[in-house]
């Protein structure tokens, strides 16, 4: 059990729903729109995408540690570290951390290969793109997360929205559908918002370590404006999904889940200490989980209605 608990902490498994939710949405979209749903393919997609997400978490920790970013965050007075701490605190050796990281990649790759043999080569392409983005988010020479030009935000939108939703839909149907792309936007933008808001927790340490996130480049005031804009875009994309028929009309109640997050923004100033952003981070995460849950439930209800 100690080994399992260590793995859960090292991989930060508690955040895995942000990957499993879009996969579930894509598969449910396939069922509601086309009547296709294969439980075996769905479970294999969940395993593969979940392993890919945990790989992403660990490879990010690995390269942030090697780049000195996590060490800077741990030592900076006004910074809240968001890594697992297994490398910065010496709980695991780099070698052990690397072995577990690449084992997760192997599981994800194997699932992708099997799914591509069953559903078509696009399944492997979706998985491969996700894997490349996950690795090069902080790894040289690309390092999306260090460039501060919006590359990292686009990478997150792709990795936790467009690719898993469209990929899960394709696995079930072996076809593409514009509705899957639309369905990916609300959950993808909300997950992007989580990753964007977490930069506020240690943006000064990131600046000293040379990690040029948009918060570092723009400063708190402008970055908070962009953060609010992302939330608005997520809401508008949800409305667009309903209007386009990608979601049933009653899915609009998911907009209620953003109210707690909206209220948190009202309590923030133009400049804040790192601790002040913890409620924002928590509310962003809860909004994404709750909104995703409502959307999943809406599609399930729609599927049941159509079945009768």
Automatic annotation (TrEMBL):
Q: How does it sit in the membrane?
A: Multi-pass membrane protein
Tell me where it resides.
Answer: Membrane
Instruction: Report the principal subcellular site.
Output: membrane
- State the source organism's domain of life: Bacteria
Quote the pathway field.
Quinol/quinone metabolism; menaquinone biosynthesis
**Which sequence ranges are marked TM in the entry?**
12-33, 39-56, 97-115, 121-138, 150-171, 183-202, 223-245, 251-268, 280-305
The keyword Transmembrane helix is assigned to this record:
yes
Which InterPro entries does this chain map to?
A: UbiA_prenyltransferase, UbiA_sf, UBIAD1
What does the UniProt keyword field contain?
Answer: Membrane, Menaquinone biosynthesis, Transferase, Transmembrane, Transmembrane helix
Q: Which PANTHER family match?
A: 1,4-DIHYDROXY-2-NAPHTHOATE OCTAPRENYLTRANSFERASE, UBIA PRENYLTRANSFERASE DOMAIN-CONTAINING PROTEIN 1
Please state what the protein is called. Prenyltransferase
Q: Origin organism of this chain? A: Paenibacillus ihbetae
